[in-house]
Write a structure and sequence with these properties.
Shape: elongated
Mean pLDDT: 75
Structural class: mainly alpha
Helix content: over 70%
Distance between the termini: 85 Å
Number of helices: 14
Strand order of the largest sheet: 1-2
């Protein structure tokens, strides 16, 4: 006996049995309508409020993360601004020590030049010659009437000749004094040029200090905005961090490419040194040794940059005494130089191995002439590989600079991504809460749709029972209105 046989109320009449079961289910659902509605609505409210609480918690987490990102941005910006302002003040101090420290000597030089120019100027002044005292005598003699006396004419002729001679002498003396004044003025020109040169140096130094002061003022304004925590400073720092993140990521990608080339350059000769068949944890020992050498070079480069105070990834190194820090610079540079020399030797060894392999292949292929001629032109590749092996370790030293920018900007970028993810998750939670709320209403309507027949019968019955009451209400209303109209009349 199957389950379908059990469902048949009347064997041989499946349609009647189906109708009977539909009626039973509809009546059962109709009787359970109110509890079912409350259960559906309660479940939708539970889900709705649960999603709203989760969204509120997510919003609080987003606000905390936003505040944390703001604090990190302001702290990083304040540190960077302090470093920039400190370097600008160091440059101003160096400028003052270099240029303004010689101002006493410049002042003394200017005073000497001005004194020399003043003395030459006083000597070059033109003093008009005093009129001779015998002019009055000549004037008195000239007023004497000649009356045709030859004696008077001779005296006047002698006086005329004396006057002409005296005039020529005065002119010669005046020309001589003018020449001396011109020579003095000419001697003043080098002093003027030197004075102008000194004043030009002073003007250049002062203008340099003015430009530095303008730069410091701009950085101080930015530092003031950062210390105040203004929104403009946060936006500026955020955009700057994102820019630095992408730039430093690009430079690190280039550095990784150089490290890969360096790895392939020394991996094969390392197999000849440590053995090509030995393995460590499933990896070739030669590859691990080559990778360790490259990582040690990068570490030495980091320590060198930290000792030079170019980067600040390790505060302990920056806080060392200057003597110890200088010693550390020499030690790290010496170790880096040794590693670069080792890589150059490994690159040379790699070229020798590749030449041996090529010669062996050519010998086995009966091409002895090519085997003898090929090594003569391989010195170029040998020199290039040795140069690459020596230069790449020093090039990897500068990885510390983009690495520092990448590390500092990564915090900001991760914070921005985290805030975006939390906002998206909050939106989804609120969306699911509203969906759960209106889904309850929808399921209630679907539930009523399944029992539409009993509900229709209920409406019809309620409608018939309410009709006599409605008629009585309408009749009473008409009687009241009539009485009201009569009373008004």
């Amino acid at each position: 006996m199957t389950f379908s046989d059990v469902l048949l109320i009347l064997p041989g009449h499946p349609a009647i049995s189906v109708i009977f079961w539909v009626i039973i289910i509809s009546v059962s659902l109709y009787l359970a309508r109110s509890p079912a509605h409350r259960a559906i609505l309660s479940m939708s409210k539970v889900l709705h409020y649960g999603f709203r609480i989760a969204a509120h918690s997510t919003r609080l987490a987003e606000q905390k993360l936003t505040q944390r990102n703001r604090e990190v941005l302001l702290a990083a910006g304040r540190e960077a601004s302090e470093r920039i302002v400190e370097r600008e003040f160091d440059r101003v101090d160096a400028t003052v020590r270099r240029d303004l420290a010689g101002y006493p000597a410049l002042q003394r030089q200017l005073s000497e030049q001005i004194l020399s120019i003043d003395e030459d100027y006083k000597q070059s002044t033109e003093v008009p010659p005093a009129p001779p005292g015998w002019l009055k005598a000549v004037e008195s003699v000239a007023k004497i009437p000649s009356s045709g006396d030859p004696m008077v004419a001779n005296i006047l002729g002698d006086i005329h000749q004396s006057l002409v001679k005296a005039q020529n002498t005065a002119i010669d003396e005046y020309r001589k004094s003018s020449h001396e004044r011109h020579l003095l003025l000419k001697r003043m020109m080098p002093h003027w040029r030197r004075l102008l040169q000194v004043l030009g140096q002073v003007d250049k130094s002062v203008n340099s200090l003015i430009e530095r002061s303008k730069t410091i003022d701009r950085h101080m304004d930015e530092y003031e905005q950062i210390t105040k925590g203004s929104d403009r400073a946060v936006r500026m720092l955020s955009s700057s961090s994102i820019t630095q993140f992408f730039i430093s990521a690009f430079v690190l990608g280039v550095a990784i490419g150089g490290a890969v080339i360096n790895f392939h350059l020394i991996a094969r000769p390392m197999s000849e040194m440590v053995g090509g068949t030995s393995m460590i944890m499933g990896f070739k020992t030669a590859n691990i040794a080559a990778l360790v050498i490259i990582l040690v070079e990068i570490a030495m480069g980091l320590f060198l940059m930290e000792s030079l105070r170019i980067t600040r990834l390790f505060p302990v190194i920056g806080a060392l005494d200057d003597k110890i820090r200088v010693r550390m610079v020499y030690i790290t540079f010496a170790m880096l130089f040794c590693l670069a020399s080792i890589e150059a030797g490994l690159a040379y060894m790699r070229e020798i191995l590749s030449q041996s392999d090529a010669a062996l292949v050519q010998y086995l292929t009966q091409n002895k002439e090519a085997a003898a001629a090929a090594p003569q032109s391989r010195w170029i590749t040998t020199a290039a590989q040795m140069a690459m092996g020596f230069i790449l370790p020093f090039a990897l030293t500068f990885v510390a600079i983009p690495m520092e920018s990448f590390v500092h900007s990564l915090r900001t970028v991760l914070g921005i991504i985290g805030v975006g993810l939390l906002r998206g998750f909050e939106f989804l939670l609120r969306l699911f809460g509203n969906i759960a709320r209106y889904a309850g209403i929808m399921f209630v309507q679907l539930y009523d749709l399944l029992i539409f027949a009993p509900l229709w019968i209920e409406r019809q019955v309620k409608g018939r029972t309410n009709e006599p009451g409605k008629k009585k209400t309408e009749k009473g209303g008409r009687d009241v209105s009539t009485a009201a109209m009569g009373g008004q009349s």
